[in-house]
Automatic annotation (TrEMBL), chains A, B, C, D:
Residues 91-326 form the DAHP synthetase I/KDSA domain. Keywords: Transferase. Pfam families: DAHP_snth_FXD, DAHP_synth_1. This is DAHP synthase related protein. GO terms for biological process: aromatic amino acid family biosynthetic process. It comes from Clostridium acetobutylicum (strain ATCC 824 / DSM 792 / JCM 1419 / IAM 19013 / LMG 5710 / NBRC 13948 / NRRL B-527 / VKM B-1787 / 2291 / W). Residues 1-67 form the DAHP synthase ferredoxin-like domain.
Length: 337, 337, 337, 337
């Protein structure tokens, strides 16, 4: 961390801040320029209270050099993390493909879709049981019954289950029944939930918040990891921008950015990003080409009657077609599906 | 709701959608243009599954005419709501002024600040006990001990307490001890929490999410109200934009917008919006001039040593000065402090 | 400027950059920390090529301490600038009120509106002759004929004319006929045009670009001023954000921000910001309360038949009403209309 | 176009708007619902003044069905446009690769880079002669001398020249010397310039504005095309969002969107989007996978001493490496480099 003080700051003011920083276990060095005074801070600065320093009227700028995350950062963990979900890997040389409907609607629906996506090469089944919906009057999911149906589909196909948790209330059921627990974009900074999930050892699929910076995204992962759970997979699903043609704007540059900053696997959800089924194919291909560790795709056997997200769901035949193209690009990237 | 079908849509496709809509209890009218076919939907469209209609390939556009919220909307509730917190009103002719520190830090701190802000004219005391922080390594609040200290400060000053809840875990304690329960920006779409709060009869101060549209903001209020709790106060605290000079961009146009769309009171938090103490005064004055029902301001007796948000906190003397100016503008607006 | 090098940077690399900076006329100081090396740069850094330094693989971060603008900045020009337009002032104790139609449409229209807004207290007349329209098929303005009509209205009322220039082609006519030359939001970074206007001594009303940061806004002013024309007035007219309820999001915090960073006057255009006539009043009041030096308001005698911007134009009677309220707030702020 | 009137609108008001629309050459149909009245507008609605309709207090919403662009739209021009630049094609089965330095700096520099990028497979040479820079104190380009140097490089390599025009002043020189005239992001809505370029028959490379919607982007193309020049190539180069880790956020979904809405070719500039050289490779690959018709990449033989954009420029060896990977993905997409 580097603190830039204004030119005429009195020594006593600088001393006060130096002492506070040293009290947090860091060392400082001071150098006097003509126009400003620079204080360098050395050591683990993650505990230094930046806001308190910024609150000082003599401080012009505070610049962090170290990233604020430790467990999620690549600095102390240079090798890529490969998360192991009962043998199915996310990260590394195998492309993770998570497919399935937005919502679990019935046994017939989820089992049928699970079989179809497995045939096409998916290695995880998604399906929402608890659904965060903008309107309280929209379908809110089958809830616990949905979890039961997902288990049936897993029994039929062997595909591990990915499904979203909306609060810590049912965390024991999720730990028991679910293979990968998803935290949705709207809960990315539900810190209470993140801490509880950090106490489990389940794989957590953490979706980027609608307007979360990359740093905030990694800090949300840090919340989970700081409690001891290092099985975190990041998922970009589009950010909110001024453009309204697409539901959200898919930020694919997040993949190389996270690969540089972090060791965690990162996957892409083109369905939620675009919000239109016909964009899923090109965006899925781009995601693989940009280096993503996996894809999360909404597939429905009857989109026109889906209880949610019909407009962005593709049919199983289309999914099969996309998988063929994705496979070809993955091979160029040295990855297998 | 108006549905615009593409020119060559077959009658059977239109019939299918008409039947689905009529199944949701609405009526439809069809008119054929040269370039497109328009289906008007009449009745309570809040239960119609728009996504399902959009998923139909023949549909060009779906346009809502009615707003999707009912309880939060002004349509069925034309008069302004005035929320009553044990005699202290929010909404109407009295400007609500909520002031206090970002975090409760000690008895001495919270009581001292409470007394000072009361003297200057604040009618509610704010103070964070549970703190949502970007970093897991930052101060997370005194938690339940913080609630106890707030109660002491209330005992000393009589000021009703406003404090943030971060999950439904401690909802009983909050209902017992707190006068206004705040839902922070990061939890604006924590629907599980909203529903639980909807089951209480406490006043809920709902902060706008960082990237929530006005419609999503009102739909979050609708979540609370649809469970039976109509004591909702909305709070704008800045939205996330490309501009980084300010912490967030305060969107004051939200006040006239919400006054048009909804009957709920709306207040402004200039401290979080700007993120810099010296901007609080001009933004507070603008908030009153634009028609806000109240202000929420961070006041600290020692900002340079505050455990959080020091850079945006003002000192009690400055708060006193601001209140004088705010009072003058409030009078022009026909309001009292 | 402070440059932070990575820990293991070789001395020769640092020397190379030091020499380049010293070649640009600045001095440097180096201090070695354990985790990084800090090079402080002292002197006029506005000519240092930051991108070149950032291109060096050993450089971790480059932090500017000085602002990149000089003539527009308050640092070397501490007193507020008051622009004098043939006796009418912008800045200081008098609130500038610029009112008139979006487009000049006819002699009758512009003269009638000019008379009405003058009566209500406007001290400048606006009216578009050259209109930047999103569609080539929309009304593009009366062009040079529009300038003639504005001159007629000025002759009738004495109000100085504010109108937009769209390219340097007609700059001589504008210098001859117009009192304040407006640069629209879309041309804020039309650097060729800015430089040409910098060579005149006319007052330039520079509108903030739709997605321009405050720094970019001031740098656009610097373009004009660096050519010798210091008569620049800044105008905030809403920025583009994710919110679509309003046409743009009015960023009122820009007023205190610019007052801190710059000595130039700054005014607010609530009409373009909101895009809805009924929001003009509350936003105009807020603009005065936040400390703006003036207002720019679209007034039309027949909005429902206006050739452009009818939805955001107010009628003369409404303008008169708004002026009364604005005047009351201006007085509290120590300003006169 | 569909106009939704409020429930109690008087017939005379609706008649007034009907007559205005019919005066613009369109037909109307009226249907009365219980809650609202819908007026459908049929015909070429591009000349209908929407703002005037929205200004009517009885109008609730105006919904466009037709897109507002005609020449740029796919509706009246279903086949993909392939632009022919003296035999070099943009669009169709050949991937256009435009490479070269940000700024032309010297004969040696531009000729050397031109040779290197040609060897690696580039089929166009880029190089800035007139440079739009945020600061008036930054290098502004060699201007006309830069054009001369580009011609030399073309003579040596045969590569057609792509370079940016900043105002209509030098349009004759550009038409004479340049093969593809680039309009930069900041000038995307410099309508005067667009119209002048529309009068030439040169290929225009139109970059998307920093905060331009897809519709505004296509309307800017329409400005050029409406004057008669149909040789337009669109270029996405990143949009402005809240994320600051990357210089801009590359919006790759624009490629399938434009392919659906328009027949014009669309290429991607990963260098300006990311602003960091190490992101160029993954984003270039993603651009080809998503279906772009070409790439525009900044290549410099000495980025650490480049006069501009050094931090995002790659070296010729790296460009060669990227081209190999891009070629492999292009082949899967059925395209050649």
């Amino acid at each position: 961390m580097v603190i830039i003080f204004k030119q005429n700051t009195e020594k006593s003011e600088i001393e006060k801040i130096k002492r506070a920083i040293e009290g947090d276990g860091c060392e400082t060095t001071v150098s006097h320029g003509k126009d400003y005074i620079v204080v360098g801070v050395i050591g683990d600065t993650s505990k230094v209270n930046i806001e308190r320093i910024q609150a000082n009227e003599n401080v012009d700028k505070v610049v962090r050099v170290q990233e604020p995350y430790k467990k999620a950062g690549r600095h102390f963990h240079p090798q890529d993390t490969i998360v192991d979900v009962d043998g199915s890997k996310i990260g590394g040389k195998r492309l993770a493909v998570i497919a399935g409907p937005c919502s679990v609607e019935s046994e017939e629906q989820i089992v049928e879709i699970a079989k179809r996506v497995k045939q096409s090469g998916a290695n995880f089944l998604r399906g929402g049981a608890f659904k965060p919906r903008t309107s309280p009057y929209s379908f809110q999911g089958l809830e616990l019954e949905g979890l039961d149906l997902l288990k049936l589909a897993k029994k039929e196909t062997g595909l591990p289950i990915v499904t979203e948790i909306m609060s810590a209330d049912f965390i024991d059921r999720f730990v028991e029944d679910v293979d990968v627990i998803q935290v949705g974009a709207r809960n990315m900074q539900n810190f209470t939930l993140l801490k509880e999930l950090g106490k489990t050892r389940k794989t957590i699929l953490l979706k980027r918040g609608l307007s979360a910076t990359i740093e905030e995204f990694l800090m949300a992962a840090e919340y989970i990891m700081s409690e001891g759970n290092e099985n975190v997979v990041l998922c970009e699903r589009g950010i909110r921008t001024f453009e309204t043609y697409t539901r959200n704007t898919l930020d694919l540059s997040v993949v190389p950015a996270i690969k540089k900053l972090s060791h965690l696997p990162v996957i892409i959800d083109p369905s939620h990003a675009a919000g239109m089924w016909w964009m899923v194919e090109p965006l899925a291909k781009a995601a693989v080409a940009v280096g993503a560790d996996g894809l999360m795709i909404e597939v429905h056997n009857d989109p026109a009657n889906a209880k949610s997200d019909g407009q962005q769901s593709i049919k199983p035949d289309k999914f099969d077609e996309i998988m063929k193209k994705v496979r070809a690009i993955a091979e160029i990237e040295g990855k297998q599906v």
